[in-house]
Amino acid sequence: MNAVPNPITATPIQDQYRLLEPAQKYTRAFCTDEEIAIAEHIRAFVNKELMPYRHDLEGGWHRDEKLAKETLHRLYAKLVDLGVTKTNLPEKFGGLAYSPVIRQMINEELSRADIGLATMVGKIHWIVSVMAAAPHPNAARLLVHFILSGEGQQILADYGGRSFLPSVTVPVGLRPTEQLKLLHSDPAEVALETEAIRKRYTQLFGV
């Protein structure tokens, strides 16, 4: 009596993985064909430029921290050149103005290579980060004053940011600041717990 073939194992391996391709795993109920095409482009980039260095991102066989950091920053630079770090910025500020949906799709594809690298790309790159290497400190101070002003805070709020200035108008759909439940902490108390937190972290993660 012949055994009934398993429908999974009987399917060629390349066909099984087709379910993980952007056109299959992202439903058009929440994304467009253009966004799927972007995800496919990112996936191809990941396969060619990131996947070959997955082991180096962990420091190789010997868990070399220097190798891991160098690889992380080298691959991150490639992603900057690709433009993925400006997907969340409005076009008038030099960004790509991608929707939150496609940004999550990009993050999903990058996570296939390394979740840490994907997190670096997915975080919001605040404009104040330029001050770390500002050639003109006084100009940087003026930028800070503008960002913290009512006008600067309103611009941030208009693009989904959060401000605690009472004069700032909250965008429709975003809960007013006064309705948020805020958690307050005493810096002095937190400082006293620093060593205990470090020990606990080492105990849990071994680093």
Overview of this structure, please?
52% of the residues lie in helices and 0% in strands. The protein has 207 residues and is mostly helical. It contains eleven helices and no strands. The protein folds into two domains: 13-122, Acyl-CoA dehydrogenase/oxidase, N-terminal domain (Butyryl-Coa Dehydrogenase, subunit A, domain 1), CATH 1.10.540; 127-205, no CATH class. The model has no long low-confidence stretch (mean pLDDT 81). It is globular. Helix 6 runs antiparallel to helix 7.
Task: Please summarize what this structure is.
Helix content is 52%, strand content 0%. With 207 residues, the protein is mostly helical. The chain folds into two domains: 13-122, Butyryl-Coa Dehydrogenase, subunit A, domain 1 (Orthogonal Bundle), CATH 1.10.540.10; 127-205, no CATH class.
Keywords:
207 residues, 2 domains, 11 helices, Butyryl-Coa Dehydrogenase, subunit A, domain 1, mainly alpha
**pLDDT averaged residue by residue:** 81
Q: Give the biggest beta sheet.
A: none
In CATH terms, what is the fold-level topology of the largest domain? Answer: Butyryl-Coa Dehydrogenase, subunit A, domain 1
- The CATH architecture of the largest domain comes to Orthogonal Bundle
- Count of individual beta strands: 0
CATH class (first level) name of the largest domain: Mainly Alpha
Taking Cα atoms only, what radius of gyration do you get, to the nearest Å? 23 Å
Please identify which CATH superfamily of the largest domain we are dealing with: Acyl-CoA dehydrogenase/oxidase, N-terminal domain
Tertiary shape: globular
Q: Please report the number of helical segments.
A: 11
